[in-house]
Amino acid sequence: MGKPLDSLSSVSGTMLITLNARAIETQSEDPIIQDPKAVEIINIFKKEIAESDNPIHRKIVKGRYNPKLGVTMALRSRQFDRYVQAFLERHPAGTVINFGCGLDTRFDRIDNGKMRWFDIDFAPVIALRRRFMEENERRKFIAGSILEPQWIEKAKTGGPYLILAEGVFMYLKEEDVKNLLRMIKDKLDIAELVCEVYNSYWAERAKSKYMQLKFKRQLGFASDAIPSFGIPDGHYFETWDKAYKFLDEWTYFDDREKKLGWFNWFAGIKLVRMVQWTVHYMIS
To answer: Which residues constitute the domain of residue 8?
Structure first.
C-alpha cells in the first residue's frame, strides 16, 4: 500500500471519501459534476489500498458507502464551483485561497486562465497533490496549518480574495475559527468567505458514544474525525465582529436534485435540512 496514504491524519483521510464520491458521480448517468481527474486518482488509489484494513479504505474498495452520500458531496462540490465562478465573473484575475484542499480538483475544472489559486493543507496531503497535480505561475500549493499565519504572506496578492473552506471548520475548535477569521480580517483586509458549517445542535450530540459508533460504522470515521464545532444559524459569525457580513447560504436540498430521491422529504424539516450547510460571508 502507498506509504503517503498511511501518513494522513484521521481528518485528512476523509478526503478519499469526497474524492471517491466525485469519481462515482462523474461516471453516473446525467452526472451532477464532471471530474475526470478524480476518476483517474481514485482508480490508482483503489489498487494501492486493496489490502488495507483502514475502515474508509475498505468501504471505498468494496463500494459500501450509501449512494446518497455521494450525491450530497457532488452537490456540495458543484455549489462551491458556482460560488467560485460567480466570484470570477466579478473579478476575473482574483485570488482564490482553498483551505484544507485535500485532493480537490476545482482548479482543473474551472480555471479561467487569469485567476490566482492557492491550495493549503498539511504536508502529507500536499505531497499527495504533487503526485497528481502540478503547480504553475498561477497555481501554488502551501504546506502547513491554516491556523498559523505563514500562509498569508505566501497567498497575499493584493486581492480581491475568495476563501473556500469545504469540510474544514467543523473539525476545528470555535476559538480556532474565531482566530482564523480575525487573521483574515487583519491581514487580507477584504475577502469573501464560502465555508461549510455544521449545526451546533448536532455537533453537541456527536459527542455521545452512540453517535461516535454511528459515524464509525457508517462512514469509517475515527473519533477525532467527527465534527466538533457547530453554529446555530448562518448569521452566527456576525455576532463575533461587525466586520463579518452574512451574504447568503445554501443547503443540499435547495437544488431539489432528483438523485436525492426520498431525502428531499427532509427539505421542510429545518433541524434536518440544516445539519450541514454552506454559508457565504464578506469580511472587511
So the answer is: 3-68
Distance of alpha carbon 113 from alpha carbon 97, whole angstroms:
16
Phi-psi region of 248 (alpha: psi -120 to 50; beta: other; left: phi over 0): beta
Residues 195 and 56 in one domain: no
User: Phi first, then psi: what are they for 98, rounded to 5°?
Assistant: -105, 100
CA atoms of 182 and 187, how far apart (whole Å): 8
Instruction: Determine the Cα–Cα distance for residues 23 and 72; give it in Å rounded to an integer.
Output: 13
Please tell me the predicted confidence (pLDDT) of residue 1.
39
Does 45 share its domain with 108? no
From CA 88, how far away is CA 90, in angstroms rounded?
5
Contact 130, 196 (CB under 8 A): no
- For residues 214 and 140, which has the higher predicted lDDT (pLDDT)? 140
**C-alpha cell at position 117:** 489559486
Do residues 175 and 169 touch, judged by C-beta distance below 8 A?
Answer: no
Instruction: Give the three cell numbers for residue 6.
Output: 498511511
Question: Do 105 and 211 reside in the same domain of the chain?
Answer: yes
Cell 498559523 found at: 148
| pTM exceeds 0.90 | yes
Judged by DSSP in three states, 161 sits in strand
Which pLDDT value is given to residue 223?
Answer: 54
Beta strands at 276-283 and 139-143: parallel, antiparallel or unpaired? unpaired
The Cα–Cα gap between 87 and 160 comes to 9
Do 102 and 175 lie in one domain? The reply is yes
Query: Does position 11 have pLDDT exceeding 60, yes or no?
Result: no
Q: Which residue's C-alpha cell is 474498495?
A: 61
Assign 39 a pLDDT band (cuts: 50, 70, 90): very high
73 occurs within a structural domain: no
